[in-house]
Fold this protein.
Amino acid sequence: MRAGASPTGAIELLDRRTTKILITILAFAAVLAILYAARAVLVLFAFAILLAYLINPVVRFLQQHSLFFKNLRGPHVAEAYLAFLILAVSLIHTFAPDIHRHPTRPIEVVQTLAEKASSGEIADDLGGNFGWSETQTARARTFIQTHKSEIDSFHKTAVQFVSVALAGIVVIPILALFFLSDGEKLAQQVVRLVSTPDNLDLIRFLVAELDATLQHYIRAKVILGLLSMLYSSVAMLLLGFSNAILLGLVAGILEFIPMAGWMMAAGTILTVGFMTHAHWIWMLLLLVLWRVVMDYGIAPRIMGHELELHPLLAIFTMMIGGAVGGIVGIYLSIPLVAAARVIWRRLIAASASPATNSPVV
């Protein structure tokens, strides 16, 4: 204790410090609780932001090469957005032509399959389709009924995912339109809201670097989509598939959809191969091989190169994201970790150079 300091003053200082720490902890816990309660809404906004970043290069290209309205962003946002909607509607019509008549049909299909699986009735259907004997069908039914709790849990997760996906199909493009139109103004308002005169430069540099990070992430996704399109097209051309280029284009576009995208692409390709008597079994083997190479080799390396993450760290991040948040966690884990890395690096740089009061580039 310093000479001349009273014990009462030390106790009051300690109490004030303890109170500030407790208030900080409670505020942090309250923020985490709010974020957890609103996680579905935050996920929709996150996907809308990523969609806006995906369309934004098209908007810039149209704005730079347009003969009219070069100084206006709105008309070119409308053009790019309209093109995206046409592409999205075409894909939805290709895979679900009657979805506009029965919008809740995917949920009904999932519920029907789950009920059949839970009761064991699906074993009879599989046995009839694949020519199983009664003994094999009975074994499958017993196995399914033994794992009834896991099937019910998967049923709840699948219904929730399909419901969120159907809502996201409507909400995400609308939110993305707002981000495309007023994203820069919104970012400036956030900077003014959270910054002070002392850290204004730091917040601006941080927002700029986060913007660049998300652009690199979208670039990586585009590269992965192009690689999937090239691989699928070449493989189908060699195996004699009809409409190989078109199917390859579909595979490349669906690469942007987490998990379900490549499954939809593979199902479409294999169905076309089966119906046209092409070598669909060889195509199945090639698709399985490509998925392994893509998920554990190419994707982590490209993501790591664009976002300055080690490939092993990228794999670890996606695995943790999948364990925590499922399909959505896998898709959002890489950009979230990259953004957290940018924030942490900027804060450390700012604390290491407080005299300049600006981040170190």
